[in-house]
């Protein structure tokens, strides 16, 4: 059973006392206050033009694509810390993502987070907010939108299309 109380979810365990019935035991608060947890709805998202403006005033661009995607092409001066890794089992969440971020960035840094199309970046933003990072912004549409908007510079379009894995 779950009971809502202020900012916490309280849970109770029901354990069998014998074959005929159950006995309710001590009620304890959940380890993490549910109201304190951030979700996708808590992430500020901006279009690529607004993201470019934020970068021009000193925000840092965090590219959470795989190293392979990043090495093909990326936003100028971007730093790459992959949210997902490619393994033999397929893509898996980088278990060191938050550790790598925390060793490189401060929780007060202003970040624009991008991936290829926006999905990984949004998930990364949620994790960053829950880790205590205060100024995290998702770039809607990711690097694909950056390219489509003509912000990728003068690289040949064929080269840029290869950098965007899901592009035709």
Automatic annotation (TrEMBL):
Coiled coil: none annotated. Residues 55-155 form the Rhodanese domain. Pfam families: Rhodanese (PF00581). GO terms for molecular function: catalytic activity. Gene3D superfamilies: Rhodanese-like domain. It comes from the Eukaryota. InterPro entries: Rhodanese-like_dom, Rhodanese-like_dom_sf, STR17/STR18/HARC1-like. This is Rhodanese domain-containing protein. It comes from Malus domestica (Apple).
């Amino acid at each position: 059973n779950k009971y809502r109380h202020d900012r916490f979810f309280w849970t109770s365990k029901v354990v069998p006392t014998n074959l005929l019935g159950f006995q309710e035991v001590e009620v304890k608060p959940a380890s993490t206050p549910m109201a304190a947890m951030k979700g996708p709805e808590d992430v500020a998202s901006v279009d690529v033009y607004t993201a470019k403006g934020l970068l021009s005033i000193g925000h840092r661009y965090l590219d959470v694509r795989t190293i392979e995607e990043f090495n093909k092409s990326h936003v100028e001066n971007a730093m790459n810390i992959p949210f997902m890794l490619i393994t033999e089992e397929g893509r898996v969440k980088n278990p060191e993502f938050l550790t790598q971020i925390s060793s490189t960035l401060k929780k007060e840094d202003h970040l624009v987070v991008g991936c290829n199309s926006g999905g990984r970046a949004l998930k990364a933003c949620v994790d960053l907010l829950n880790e205590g990072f205060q100024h995290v912004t998702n770039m809607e549409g990711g690097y694909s939108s950056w390219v489509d908007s003509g912000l990728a510079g003068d690289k040949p379009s064929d080269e840029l299309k290869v950098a965007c894995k899901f592009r035709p």
